[in-house]
Amino acid sequence: xxxxxxxxxxxxxxxxxxxxxxxxxxxxxxxxxxxxxxxxxxxxxxxxxxxxxxxxxxxxxxxxxxxxxxxxxxxxxxxxxxxxxxxxxxxxxxxxxxxxxxxxxxxxxxxxxxxxxxxxxxxxxxxxxxxxxxxxxxxxxxxxxxxxxxxxxxxxxxxxxxxxxxxxxxxxxxxxxxxxxxxxxxxxxxxxxxxxxxxxxxxxxxxxxxxxxxxxxxxxxxxxxxxxxxxxxxxxxxxxxxxxxxxxxxxxxxxxxxxxxxxxxxxxxxxxxxxxxxxxxxxxxxxxxxxxxxxxx
Length: 297
Fold this sequence. Notes:
By secondary structure, the protein is mainly alpha-helical. It has ten helices and six strands. It has helices at 57-60, 66-73, 75-78, 91-95, 126-131, 139-151, 157-171, 188-226, 230-256, 265-294, and strands at residues 45-50, 103-107, 120-125, 135-137, 173-177, 185-186. It has a three-stranded antiparallel sheet with strand order 1-3-6. A three-stranded antiparallel sheet has the order 2-5-4. The model is unreliable at 1-6, 26-36 and 246-285 (pLDDT under 50).
């Protein structure tokens, strides 16, 4: 069998009206595959160094609750909640050491982070934290805030200038105001795995488009044979509806990921892809129903 023609051989006699139903696993059929990928890092990543273990002496000295310790050690699972979400601590005050604020310190140096701090690196998806409602304070904005703070605190001039040097020349500090969801946080392993899945997904998506091209080819031949545009028009309706349904399915799949316990990283992408398959099928067959009014096949 080539890409367009299916052939088979059967024995027949000369009796009138003799009919055979020919079936085969190789019979051409409508095949479609929808893979929708949840992109990551569209605006880049921020880096934060975190504690490797809950037994870290410095972490123990902070006298945090067990919930706070979980977020400090496993933010990929629990997300990051600032020390005080209702705090009125300013950008300058946080940067100079008052960490009981609504800010979380990160670095824009990807993937290494600030060289002044030790610990395990996590990577925070900028696009995802923005969509979650958190806001960013850039390195430049932090420096402006410190210079303004210096005007009314001249006795702290040397200390403030020292922090400005760290922030601008070494740390490249960026503050995140508000909660950071677990779905925006990756470690080295999950970031690598997710990136590879996305690359593979793009390849699979190309194959998916190639599979559906078979129906377009058949419909085109039919249009030429009968001298009417209806077959190809109907098939375009079917396939456009299917791909549209896949996108809607991805959104549904991603939103329901948390309901089945998948909150972060590759799991969210897999959930979105499954949603795309389901939604694509629904979109396809709904469009198929409409297209049959144009030209039934």
